Amino acid sequence: MQRAMRTAALLAALAGFLVPGGGAAAQELWLTTSSGEAGPQVRVNFGSPRERRVPSRPKLLSLVAITPDASANLLPEVKPSAPDVPPALVAPLPSKPARTLVAATYDSGYWVTLKDGAKRNTSRLMEPEAEAGRWTVRFAKAALGPEAPWQRVVGHVLEIVPLEVPSASAGAIRFRVLFRGRPLAGAAVFYADNSGDLGQRQPPASVTDEAGVATVPIRQPGMQIVSVSHAEDPSLAPALADRDDYSATFAFRLDEATVN
């Protein structure tokens, strides 16, 4: 019975994803690299690859670089990117990118939807008559090279963990989705490249099974971005929000032509 109810709920959710033109592009957090004055740097991107927005420095709660044998806190070094490039927050990498996994947490705060449909960045304490209220937090990871600890579990509330390191000719990659450290079944996993949308405007690439595992196709070379979201209703803080919305991304590059 529980499995049937979960399946029905998932089908209803997927129907919403597939409505043509339905909803705005998801506002996600994802990590990439670029060259800075002092060498390679990690970029904290916000919005979607197709429509980037300026991330808020105070909302970035953590940014960590992890190698197979060490980790470093990059948060004190974070600064806005140069004005002549797509908006982002950047920080220098303390080690070779090929060996580095980076992970970030971003708190988008409380949002309410008013009776006239307008959205406001505040909680139910300030707008008790709002139609709906939610708290949104985003997590991001990126494997910057083949020697990075791809399969490391960093402890995010919602986390995407690769089950393998894909070869340059890989046509797909398997991930496990964890929520509070446990496999999350029935989660819609989306795929995008560095010029597309993350979720919402496209059908899911896969749905996690009972073990939280999904197989995601790799459609073209270059930047690969996988995303997933999960909502908890009621909220952990019901006086502030009705529900808690979590999202997570995992990014990596495959620069040679794929087989798909």
Shape: globular
Note the main sheet.
Answer: 9 strands, mixed
The SS-based structural class is mainly beta
Radius of gyration: 18 Å
Which percent range fits the helix content?
A: under 10%
Mean pLDDT: 85
Q: Helix tally?
A: 1
- Percentage of β-strand residues: 35-45%
Which regions are unreliable across 5 or more consecutive residues at pLDDT < 50? Answer: 1-25, 256-260
The succession of helices and strands, N to C, reads HEEEEEEEEEEEEEEEEEE
Gap from first CA to last CA: 38 Å
Number of strand elements: 18
Question: Could you outline the blueprint of secondary structure elements for this entry?
Answer:
Elements: H1 2-17, E1 28-36, E2 39-47, E3 52-53, E4 60-67, E5 70-73, E6 79-80, E7 89-92, E8 101-113, E9 119-120, E10 132-143, E11 158-162, E12 172-179, E13 182-183, E14 188-192, E15 206-207, E16 213-217, E17 222-232, E18 243-254
Parallel strand pairs: 10-18
Antiparallel strand pairs: 1-2, 2-3, 2-7, 4-5, 4-8, 6-7, 8-9, 8-10, 11-12, 12-13, 12-16, 14-15, 14-17, 17-18
Structural descriptors:
single chain; 6% helix; 1 helix; disordered N terminus; five-stranded antiparallel sheet; nine-stranded mixed sheet; globular; mainly beta; 260 residues; disordered C terminus; 18 strands
Commentary on this structure:
- The N and C termini lie far apart (38 Å).
- It is built from 1 helix and 18 strands.
- The strands form 3 sheets. Strands 4, 5, 8, 9, 10, 14, 15, 17 and 18 form a 9-stranded mixed sheet that branches.
- With 260 residues, it is mainly β.
- The N terminus and C terminus are likely disordered.
